[in-house]
Amino acid sequence: MSQNIDQILEKYRGKGVIIDTNLLLLLVVGSYDQDRIARFKRTKTFNKDDFMLVKRFVEYFKTVRTTPSILTEVSNHLNQLPEGLQTEFYTAFSDYINNLFEVYETSASLSKNDCFTKYGLTDTSIIDDAKNNYLVLTDDFPLSGYLNKSGVDAINFNHLRVVNW
After folding, report:
1. Helix, strand, or coil here: 26?
2. Residues 78 and 28 sit within 8 Å (Cβ to Cβ)
3. Alpha-carbon distance 150 to 158, whole Å?
4. What Å distances lie between residue 98 and 25, 74, 94, 103, 110, CA to CA?
């Protein structure tokens, strides 16, 4: 990253941030039950401190952007929770959805993007939206590397951990 994190954050504070699937899932799970983070197979690589870090990061921005593809992936992951827990977590997810700015681009249009065959639909939707001057927060190294090489600011969550933001 050519700029430090604080400079990047200030640049995008009023514009917005796009949160990738795994981190949005972490926010949803942690917002309902932080103890579930370590016990759910889709979030067990994270912990309560990670949840608090992402939560604090997201709260810094005026707008949190998302795409239908990101939301679908989060929904599909939540469906892997034990049956008795799904309703509560879907309720927490609904609360999150209501606070997000969802942008839509047709899948047909996204599939024509040069990066589609390498990164798939969800990441292509992130790449497509981010090019309109939004910051991306992800834990996906290939995606963050591609964005940074393309001149789009992206922060890999693991870098936030290292700098203890």
Report:
1. helix
2. yes
3. 20
4. 15, 14, 6, 13, 24
pLDDT for 121-135, tens place per residue? 999 999 999 997 999
- Quick one: pLDDT at residue 165? 64
Q: Which residues pair with 156 in a beta bridge?
A: 138
Half-sphere exposure of 140 (CA within 13 A, CB side): 20
Residue at token pair 């579930």: 36
Confirm if 140 and 123 have CB atoms less than 8 A apart. Answer: yes
Q: At what angle do helices 68-78 and 21-32 cross, to 10 degrees?
A: 50
Residue 149 tokens read as 């090489």
Chain segment 81-94, per-residue pLDDT in tens: 998 899 999 999 99
CA quadruple 129, 135, 141, 145: dihedral positive or negative?
A: positive
Contacts of 149-154 with C-beta under 8 Å, sequence gap 24+, read 152/127, 153/1, 153/3, 153/8, 153/11, 153/12, 154/130
